[in-house]
């Protein structure tokens, strides 16, 4: 009887047993050929849980036959690092797999880095967080390979499950199991590309099933029950959460309702209502803007209602807001205008405020020359209201334009007014 979980027992023993990830470790890749020829570079593996980072490290170790040490940065201390360094002095070279590498502290890094640089320690770091955000640059610079692993496809997972069913040494091959191809497909498609979850479900469903005529008979309802909400992944503090926020905004910007609603649903299931509401409000003004100025207040009302309601009812006003933004005319002109002004200021394109615009609410302002301001409300111009021809920007940047209107939705009218006022100034 095995004590270890099936997912642990079925880890690939060499790189030829890796499921999926063919673009990274397939037989036609440089990394595969390097490892087969005995050269293992230090590397960082990045991706969601269960997609094979640890398995790939173990497979590389099995192929290379190097002394292999596995550590987790959440529980390892300086003494653990020193032990790895001592091992490298004895064996000449050690392959170190460091899980959750982004949690390594500076003291641990300082102990390890010289030996990684010298090649005495070959480092394979794994992280669920974006290494360009969460891994120290000193470690990144010493890793020749930084690879983002992808979630496994159902076909890859089918191969993993079928291998587990026939493997008599590590898998379930010694047990007579009646499981259909459709049931294996259901597991493969229900775990969102996570091999560990697929094997865990297979093991669990076998354990929960009854034996009939000397065979374990698998029933559909057991698989459905165990899969449950397993398709969700990520948390509200991880890189994947921010990737979902980015995907939501880009889908709204691209007017794709179905994609936007999908990413909204995923974000709400992960569960940070405040962050989602904040992003939606930013989107209303960044991406919809002046083309549909009524959308901003609508989204504000929706987000306030969502926070007041809480989940699950919050999904309703937020879905309204997302769909309205998808279908609204779009303009980023205001956002680009203020960014252009900020950029100009930071580049030193500034000047003195014109004297006629300076504060005059004190005795002596006239003596300083703070005079000459023309009050626009005193000179009405058609149905527009008050306007008068005077300059407002500093003299040095008098002719700079930061705003470029987008001819969309309501901004068409604003653009026409803008151009007409420019014409008045030229006259």
TrEMBL record:
GO terms for biological process: DNA synthesis involved in DNA repair; DNA-templated DNA replication. Pfam families: AAA (PF00004), AAA_assoc_2 (PF16193), MgsA_C (PF12002). This is ATPase. The keyword NAD does not apply. InterPro entries: AAA+_ATPase, AAA_assoc_2, AAA_ATPase_RarA/MGS1/WRNIP1, ATPase_AAA_core, DNA_pol3_clamp-load_cplx_C, MgsA_C, P-loop_NTPase. Keywords: ATP-binding, Nucleotide-binding. SMART domains: AAA. GO terms for molecular function: ATP binding; ATP hydrolysis activity; DNA binding; enzyme activator activity; single-stranded DNA helicase activity. Transmembrane segments: none annotated. It comes from Sporosarcina limicola.
